[in-house]
Each structure stands twice: as structure tokens, then as C-alpha cells.
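Quick entry between incubations.
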Amino acid sequence: MTQPDEAFLKEFDAGLTRRILNYLRPYRTLAVLGLIATLLFSVAAPLYGLIQRYAIDHALGPNVLTAGSDLATRQALYQVLLRAALLFLGLRVLDFLLRYLATYVISLLGQKVLYDIRSDIFTKLQRLPLAFFDANPVGRLITRVTSDVDAINQFITAGLVSLITSTFLIIAYVVIMLSVSWPLAIISFLVLPILFYASAFFRTKIRYAFRNTRIQQAIVNTKLNENITGMLTVQLFGRENHNAQDFDRSNRRLLDATINSVSWFSLFQPTVSVLGAVASALVLWFAGRSILIKAGVGNPDAFLAASGVTLGTLVAFNSFVGQLFQPIQDLADVMNNLQAAMASAERIFGVLDEPVTIQDKPGAKTLSPFEGRVDLNKVWFSYDPAVTADTPDDDPRWTLRGIDLHIRPGESVALVGATGAGKTSITSLVSRFYDVQRGSVDVDGVDVKDLAQYDLRRHIGVVLQDVFLFAGTMETNLTLGDPNIPHERVIQACKYVGVHEFIMELPEGYNTEVRERGATLSTGQKQLLAFARALIQNPDILLVLDEATASVDTETEMRIQDALEKVMHGRTSIIIAHRLSTIEHCDRIIVMRRGQVVEEGSHRELLVQNGYYARLHRLQYAQGDAAD
Amino acid sequence: MNTLSTLWPYLKLHQRQFFVGTLAVFGASWAVTLPAYFTRLIIDGLTRATATGALPGQGISAGQVALYALLAVVSVVFSGALMVMVRRQIVYASRQIEYEVRRDLFGHLSTLDKYYFDRARTGDLMNRLTGDLSAVREMIGFGSWQVASVVASFVVSFFWFFSLSWQLTLAVLLIFPVIIGTLFVLARLISARYVAMQEQNSVIAAKAQENFSGARVVKGYAIEDREIGEYKTMNAELIRRALRLTTVEGPLQASMSLLMGLAYVTVLIYGGRMILGLVPNSPLTLGQFTQFALVLDRLAWPMLSIGMITNMLQRGSASWGRLQELFVAQPMIKDDGRTDVSIKTLRGEIEFDKVSLNFDGQQVLRDVSLKIPAGQTLGITGPTGSGKTVLGNLVTRLMDASSGTVRVDGYDVRRMPLKVLRENVAVVPQEPFLFSDTIAANVAFGLDNATYAPTATRISVLKSKAPPPDDRQPDMNRVRAAAEIAGLAGEIERFAQGYDTTLGERGVTLSGGQRQRTALARAVAREPRILVLDDAMSAVDTETESRILSGLRQVQEGRTVLLIGHRVSTLRHADHIIVMERGTIVEQGSHDELLALDGRYAELDRQQRLEGDLSGEDEAQLTKAVPTENPDPTGPAKTKVNA
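Done. Structure below.
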């Protein structure tokens, strides 16, 4: 059960807002253009009502048209009406263009900003050290570049743009209405504060209800996913009914949550409609009375008399009131929209502010030619960032404790030891995935901290037990997308490690798309591909992390052995080995225990030495008999 | 449509809600046009009252104005109340149907077999159960409501239009096709371009996912800049698609207001001529004109929604088709006519009689014959793909033999009720699937399940009983005993929350060995007659494995065990051992007999003595005080214990 990030709320934060606004800065011209277009169509909005008013009062109204008007008068009035109608249409066309322009410009602006934010996060994530990826599950990082960025988009479009547009529109309407008839305008405005608060109230309720729905939906989805993946286990344990009941509970909770959202939603729109009807009824009643008083019907009233209402005014205000509703409702929601993005913004900037602990020094060196000498000088290392050089030696958090290891160019070294002895850590340090707390790691006599990371890693080939395949073809996976690697070199390498035939058996050979991360490939094939990839990159130092221990058949195993020897040839190689045959082939064996080197030497030397390695070997050999 | 007819049973469960809801839609659509009518009465009254030379008392009084204004409010209140009802009938019903379909699909999926799940991809099933189900729900909820609403709006509006002026109505009818056509085309374009944009979004998310999971490779080969370049290219494409969407979506509102403006101007010009008496014999009052314009204005949304509804219905029925595919999928393995319900228990004698099995076009077993007396332990070894696991699958009937017969207690397993068979057989796979629940619940996974009644399907949620709020607590004594046997009890007790520790994303992550032992405890807790250990302790060190196996031997008195594995040190204790290769038994006998045979088994034994796992036996002794190598920055609460 994972709660979606959006389950968390955050108050509005001016500092974060400023940082988001900074992203708009490069696009000032666009922003200004969008703003002007918005301003113009906002000003145009109340004009339609005024044209209606003009048409009624000057062409159609009771005061211009009397029973006895002759045809010529009526024709003349029709000309007035026609002009008004054409003006109306012309304005609409202009309005269309302005709105289109505004929408397009703002969308372009929003997309550009999103592009920049996404690129920034992604670039930043590429620079962050591996430790960051150890600490953050992939799912969480994906959220940063997807839904969190979308929330920023909401901030800009539903928040800022809506704030500006609504404000412009409201000001335009209010000014026009007040200037046409201030008493009628004031009457019309009576309902607006209620509308504002009702909207804010309902939107908040709906937002909370939706959030709860999403949480329940996430729970249901997690359970679905888990049950689909584990269905055979469920069946073998006869648990179908039990799990169906459990799922039914979550499913019902989701139903209740959605029904709750719908019930709030169902009240919202009718409430707004009723408020609209009240506003319009007030206009009708007030305007009707003042028209009647002017006509001499009913008691005179100073306030009503001051209104100067005509039938045209009545019709115009009737539509003004309706048109004012939308911007008021939007404005009521602006704060919610702005606030909704705060938590996302904070998370995004959290990533952007993450210190890059492993960075190239100014003027970092590059090595050329590269020899491949590796020296670990009294290295103390812990994955825990809280551990410093001053942490006492007996602290259990140390992973490597004073490793002193010197590897000549071209030498192959096998690291042997139990899980947790620190073998993988050593290989990670050579690539400078992490920085050591004490001592130094040197490559060709230069501290890796003084080398350019890119250059260093370009010279190191890493072979993981399980080759990581990217979306793309076999070929791009082997070249890692480097267009400068000729196809011939790829084939040559694949032939060399003995995976060429396998690739050629695929439907489209090297151009076969890799599906589902190569789920259909066997362990052995993957390992061979990993060797081929390393070989194509032509590294000077080879790191083999955890050779495959999973059961592979003898034939494949021999191929892997063979490929490994070929890849190791002439390269400095550090290999974490499990198979005795691999270990025996290395120039030197380093036996590690609890972050320290306990023995080193060749297989024979170590056996003669009769120490820990020899004991391991013997234990292994005697295993069958010693079990009882 | 053919596929949609299968949706009918669900709609039928809620037919009353749809019927009442549709009536309410018509009522609301009618009531909402009444304010326009009252406005007309007021305007016409005022026109007469203020006309030059009007007599006092002619036209309308202030009281009448107030009354009409009040009536306008009342009709909107009425329409509003009906709208609340619409949502609470139709939309509720759609949500309830969504629940019911989800419940029934879940139930149906749990009847499907290994053959189905081997082919189906989880991601695809999830997409259907989420995206497609939402599309169906939108179609039957919002969609059907909108269809009713569009129809009702047009009926009511045209009733008013014709009652006001047929000439004006004709004028409007000339323009409407243009408006509806334009909006329809826009809606289609928007839908297509929206999909294109979403696709690009998925591509980008997939890229990010891949990059983050492969951080070690990306950094190891220093291809960060290439990755950033690709990512930016993908994002640039997203911008392009987003803007393509904007070019059709942006003008939707603006076009709407332009087109409605055009309609209004038409009405204004022609209606104006009528008011001015320039159209012979067709008088029109200002009030009538205003009412006409107000009703016309209300049609904007229904016209806009025609395109949207079409898309929604199309998407919905395509999605229902995809869900229907799930419903029609049938398991190959199920109780059927052959099932002999009189079989209630079993002892555990297993016999393979000339069994062959073809799977995915490959022959994975050929002509295997073998008899395991009840209570015996059979060791099975052989290279990957030799058919070891398949033997276990045949006993549990995850698969059925292509030819030959698998018998348990002399009965063909295909005659045995699945429930009885699986109640008595427990499997521990190499990579067990554990649930994100507590350790106790995972160990008790197979206990008390018979007491749970099936969840009723194909009935309305309104008529089905909600399940009890909590599951019964598992029998902790059995859980503890099982954990003890599986060699897990000590480690569990070291967790801060013991047996209540939650596993999975939000709890502790178990090591491979711990996972395997939890699965073993889960199987042992059921006290099965037949236990299948399928490479079940590959991640457990040999010493612990031996200890567990000897513990098992004591409690498994009389139990049949299929022990699949690679370690000779483990296999040697089996009563009988078979060596599989390419789907056949190539060697069999006791440990000593097989060694004497000096064949593959003996070779395996030699190999393991020579090359065995270096980090095996010694590990437990060596790493006790050493923290794990895997950096776990979430702190000591999640400290993993090495297997």
C-alpha cells in the first residue's frame, strides 16, 4: 500500500512561488504578449452586453417604437440595429483571434517552462551520485519528472493564468456595470460574495474528497497488482475467497470515497445555478421597478430614480450577471490550485537543491595514455554519509577498514569473501561512485577525486551479473547509443565472446527490439551480452561485479568462462568471483573479511599458506561429509 | 453493438436509477428554461407599461415583476434539485457498476490458470482494470447522462423556439449544422491529439524509469550526457505534440463563443426586423426575442458536448470490449465433469504414468514414469530446463499432462477436486511471492481459507452484504511453530514489531534467504500431505538448510516430499533421487547407488566438492557482526539480516 505523494498537503509558500516564477523569466516576451491579449479580450467581454443594450434602447425598445411609426422610421431603426449587429459580430471575430492568441501563447509558455524544469531535474539526477539512487526508489524519482512537474503546470495555467484572467474580467465587468448604472450594479453584486465563498467551500470539499478517492484508488490498484502477480500462489494456497473478500473491502472503500466526491460535486453546480437565478431575479425586480417608476407607475424612490435603467440596461445586466459568475468561481479556486502545487514544487526543488557530493574539481585531470594502475591507499569507507574521517575505527558502520591494495596495469585480481565483506564496495570506489572517508583511491597514480568523472568511467568497463537492457535494439544496447561505434566492431566483439550466433537467431538480428528489459533472455545470454557490451566500450580497467551464480547449464558456463578470459586479457581486471575455476585463472586472489584484506596471493600460494582461503577451500571440499 | 450487449446485465442491476435519472434530466432541462419565459413576461409587461401613450395600469405592476422574478428563482431551485438527483442516480449507478465490474473481474481472474497468467502481462491487465474500466464508467455514467441531457435540451429548446417564432427557428436551424459540425470536428481532433500527447508522456516516463533503474550502468559507462540529450529530444517532441493539441483545443471555447455570436446576430437581425414589423404578418415582441436569445444561449453546452460524447462512447465501448476479453477467458484447469466430489482427503502417494508434457511448442517432459510411496522423500535434480519444476506443477495441477496420467493415491489428479488437491499439497518455489502484509499474515497465508465464503458476483452492490471489517486473526501458535521449523523464528523476533512487521515497500525488505524461509513456513503451516520444495532454499546457506531439513524430517512424519535442488549435500538424504535431463529421467536410485553408478549425479557431487559455493558454509560464521554491504540509508530500523 503506497500512498500517493499528493496525499500530503502544503501551505502556500511565497519563496517557492518566486522560484517557479523564475522559470518564466526567459520567456518575458511571450508572457507580456499573453498578458496583453488576455487584457484585451477581457476588456471586450462586457462590450457585447453594451451593444445589446444599445440595440434595444435605440432600435427595438418601447420608447423608440410606437404603434404608429411609419415604414421609413422603421427602416431607419433597422439600419441602426444592423450596424449594432455587425459591430457585435466584428468584435466576436476579434475576440476569437485574441483568445486564440492568448491560449496559444500561454500554452507555449507553459510547455517551455515544463521543458526547462524537466530538463533541469533530469540533468540534475544524472549528476547526483549513486548514493542518491540507493536512497530513493525509482518510483519516487519518476513522480518528480511526471506528476510533480504536471502540478507545476497546473500552478501556471490553472493558478497564475486563471488568477490574471479572472481579475481582468472581473475588473472590466465591474467598471462597465458601475458606469452604466451604479445602483443596479450594486444590486447585481449582492450575490457575488456568497458565490465566492460557496465556490471556495465546495471546491475545498471536492478537493479533499478527490484526494481521498485517489488514495483509495492507489490501494485498490496495489492490491490488484499484487493479486495478479501472485495469483498462482493465491490459488495454490486455496486463498481465492479470502483474498476476494479482502479486495472487496478495499473496493467498497473506493466506492464510498467516489460516492462521497460525487455527492459534493452534485451539490456544487446547482448551488451556483440557484445563486445565478437569485442575482438575475434581483436585477429583473429592481430594474423592472425603476422602469415602472420612470413610467409613472408606483411610488417614486430616490435610489431607484438614480439608476437610469432602461429595458436595454435590464437585458444587458441580466447577461452581465451570468458572465461574471465564471471568473468569480475561478478566482475562488485559484488559491487551491496554487496551493496544490506547493508540495510538488517543494519536492522538485528538493531534488534540484540536493548537493552533488561527487563533483569534478575545477580543472579536473584526464589521463592519456591510460595505463590501468589501481591503488587503494589505506581506504576507509562507509555508505553512511554520517560517517566521517573522525569516526572511530571500531564503529560498525565502516564497510571498508583500511584496505591497502595495489594492482598493476594488466593484472587480474579476484576478490573473494563472504557477502558483506566489502568486495562490491571496492569496485564502486574505483569508478568513484562514492568517495572514501579516509585514504585515497588512485588510478594511474592520480587520486580519482582529481580526475574528470566522465573520463575516468570511460576507461572502466563494468560487467554486471544481469545485463541492464534499455529500450531499443540489441545493437544500441551494445553500443549504449554511441553512434561512433561501427557495426563491425559490435559484430567482432559479439563473435569474440560467443553471443553472435544467438543474436543472429533473433528475428531481426542486431536490430531486434529489446522487449520487457530482455525478460526472454536466459541468465547465460545476458551475462555474455554484458561481456560484449564491456568489450565494445574497450575499457582499460574491467570490473566484473558478481559473476552469475544462478544455475546455468555446463555448456553456457564454459562459454562464460571462456568469454571472461578473453575479456580480461590484457586489461586490469577486478573480479568478484564465486567459481573456483575463475578464481584460479586470476593473477592474484584477495581474500576479504569484514572490510579488510586478510590474505592475498595466487591460488597455490594461498593453499600453501594454509590460512583462511585454504580453510574456505577445505570446508567447501569437505562439505558433503561434514554436514552430519 | 455486440460487445455492448454484454454490459446490459450490469445496467439492469441499476435500471431504476437510470430510469429515474433520465426522467430527472428531462425535468431539469425543462425547468431551467423557465426563467427565460418569466423574463419575457416581465420585459413585455414593461414594454407595454412604458410604451408611449400607455394608460396607467396597462402592462405590468411592480408586484407582478416581483412574482415573476420569484418564480424564475423557484424554477431554478426546482431544476437544481433535479440535477442533484440526476447525479445521485446516474453517476452513482455508474460508480456502483464500476465497483461491480471490478469485483467480478477480480473474482474471474482468480479462476484463471497458469496458462493464462503465463501469457498475460500484468501491466496490460492493470491497464484494463484501471484505464479501460474508467472509460466504461464514464460512458455509462457521464456519457448516458449527457446523451439524455443533449436530447432533452434540444427537445425543450425547440419546443420554445417553435412556440415563439417558426421563422426565427428556421434561421437558427440553418446555422446549427455549421456550429455542431465545427465543434464535432474539433472534438475529434482534440481527442486524437490528446492521445498522441499522452503517448509521448508515457514514452518520457518510460525513459526516466529506465534511466533511474539503470543508474549504475549509466554512470558506469559515463553516458549521462547522451541520456540527457535523448531525454531532451523526447521532451521537445512532447512540446510539439502539446502545441498541436493547443491549436485545436485552444480555439474550442473561442470558436464556441464566435459561433454562438453568429447565431445570436442572426437572431438579432431577423428578430429585429420582425419586432420592427418589417416582416409581414410576423410580429415579435422584445420579450419573445429576449427569451429566444436566452434559450439559444443555453444550447451552447449541449452542442459542444456532442463531439465529446461521441468520443466518450467510442472509447467506452472499445474499453468494454477489452474488459469483455478478460471475462470470456476460461481456465483450462478447473473442476469439470470428470471431477469426483467423493474424494475428500488424500494420503500422498504419487505416481507418474508415462507422462509427457508439451508447453509453448516444446516437449518439457517425455514419457516419465515414477512412483513415490506416501511418506517418502524424492530428490530431483538436473540442469535448468530439464523439467524438474514441471513435475511439481503436475502434482499441484498448475499444469496438466499432455499424455499419460499423474495419480495421487491412485486417482487421476484430473478427477480430484482442485480444492482437495491444493489443500493437501504445499509448494515452496525458488522465488516465492510474498504479500505486502505482516509476517504473521504471510505465514498464515494458507490457514483457515476454507472458512471464507466466495464473494457473490453479478449482483448489485446495493443488495450484497459488506464483508466484515477485519479478517480473523491467525492462530499464532501455528504461525510460530511453522516459523520455528523454517528457521525463521529467531530473526522475526529480532524485528522491532516481531510477527507484526510489514513486508514490502512500506515495511522491511527481506533477504532472499529470509523470503524463501518465510515461504517455507507458509507451506509448513498448512501441514500438507505433500510438500514440494522447488529449489526452495537456494538462497539459504547449506548449514541452515541442513538444520531446517532435519527439523522438517521430524514434523513431516508420513509426509511425501518432492525435494528439487542442486546441492548434493541436501539431496543425499532423500529416499530416492532422480536426475532429469531434457525432460526424462536419466538416472535414479539412492545417494549411494547413484554415486556407485558414477554418472551425472556422481559428477555433480565431484563438481560441488571442487567448485562449490565459496561464500556458502562459512558465511554464517563470518558475517555475524558485519553490516550488510547493501547500503540502506533508511537507517537501522530496516537492517537486513544475512541469510
